[in-house]
Amino acid sequence: MKEQISLKDAISIGIGGMVGGGIFAVLGLAVSLAKGGTPLAFLFAGIIALLTAYSYAKLSKKFPENGGTVKFVHQQYGSGVFAGGINNLLWISYIVMLALYASAFGSYGAELFSITGTKEIDIRIFQSSIILIALSINYLSVKLVGEIESIAVVVKLLILIAFIVVGFYGFSIHPENIEQLSPQHWESPILLLSGGMVIFVAYEGFELIANSIADLKDKEKNTEKAYFGAVGFVVVLYILISIVTVGALPFDEIASAKDYVLAKAAEPTLGQLGFTIITITALISTFSAINATVLGSGRVNYVIAKDNELPKYFSHIFWGKPIGFLVTAILSIALVNLFNLQSISTAGSAGFLLVFAIVNYIGYKKHKVLESNKWIHLLATILCSLAFLTLVIQQYSENRIGVITALGIIVFSFILEFIYKATLSKK
C-alpha cells in the first residue's frame, strides 16, 4: 500500500515550495518598486494566491492526481494545442523559477565567499554550479531530496521567525526607522500593485501541494486545510518580513543591496553575525528550493511528454531519471546567465499568473461538479488576468527585456505545441 502523508506534511510541502528562494530573490526588488508600501504589495499578491488556492483546493479534492495542474488542464481542455501550450508554459515557468532561485543563491554566496576576487564572476560560478549540484542529487536519490527539504523547511522558518522578532525589537532601539513605512513613503497604487505582481513568484510554490494530494490522508477534510494553512501562514510571514526590512534600512541602502537585502536588514540589530546567519539561511533555502524545483519540473516535463504534448524524447530515461531533469537544468543555467533578476522575476510571475488564471477559470467552469462557489473562481480568474496585464504594461516601460522575455516564453510554449501536434498529424 502506498504511504500516505499527513496534513502537516502537505502544509510543509506548500510552505517549503513558497518560502524557498522567492523571498530571498525578490524582496529587494519589491522594495525598489513599492518603497514603504512593500507590505501592501505582498498583501495584494497574497490575496490573489489565497483566491487561487481555493480553486486548487476544490480541483485537487475532485481530481486528486499526481499531475496536479497538468491534469486539471486536461480535465477541461483535453489534450489539444491549447492544453499542451498551457502545460508547456507551466514547465518553462518552472525553469524560470529555477533560474530565479539560482540567481539569489549566487548573490548571497558571493557575499559570503570569494572565489576569483571578482564578484560578478563569483556570482556566475555559484549560480551555475548550484543547479548542477542539485541535478546530481536528484539523479543520485529522490529520497535525499525529500530529506534535505524536511530539514531546510524547519531551519529557514526558525531563523526567519527569529529575524522578525529581532527586527521588531530593533524598532524599539531605532524608532525613527518605522517612519519609512508611513503612507507618505508609499508608491502610487499602480506601482504597489505592479510590485506585488513582480514578486508573485514568491507565492507560486503552493502549486506543489497539488502533486501530493493523491497521497493525502482524509482528502475530504484536509485538502482545503493544506492549501489555506500553507498560503495563509506564508502571507503573514512575508508581510512581517517586509515590515522589518523596510524599517531596518534606508531606501538607498536597500537599493544598493537589492540582491541580498534580507541579510543586510539583519545588520543594524545583530551586526556582521546577523548578516552571516541570514546569508547562510538564504543559501540553505535557495538550495532546497532549487533541489525541489529540479525534481518538480523534471516530473512535470515527464508527465507532459507521456501525455503526448511534448516529444516522446522527454519521457526517455537517462541514468534512471527522466531526461527532462537534465534538459531543465541546462536551460535554467542558460537563462540565469543571460538575464538579470528583474527580467527573470517578471517572466516567472507572468507565466504563473497566466497559468493560475486558466486554473481559476477551469474551477469556474466546473463549479457544479466541484460543488464550489463559482463567484470566488470567477473573481480569482479576473484578478489573475488583471494582475498579468498590470505587470506587462507597467514593466514594459522599466523592464522591456523582462516583458519581451515573458511574452516570448508564452508564445513559444504554444508554437512548440502547435508544431509538435502538426508533426504528429502527418505521421
UniProtKB/TrEMBL annotation:
Superkingdom as given in the UniProt entry: Bacteria
Identify the keywords attached in UniProt to this record, alphabetized.
Cell membrane, Membrane, Transmembrane, Transmembrane helix
Q: Which InterPro entries match?
A: AA/rel_permease1 (IPR002293), APC_superfamily (IPR050367)
| Signal recorded as keyword | no
Q: Drop me one GO molecular function for this one.
A: transmembrane transporter activity
A single cellular component GO annotation:
plasma membrane
Query: Where in or outside the cell?
Result: Cell membrane
What's this protein's name?
Answer: Amino acid transporter
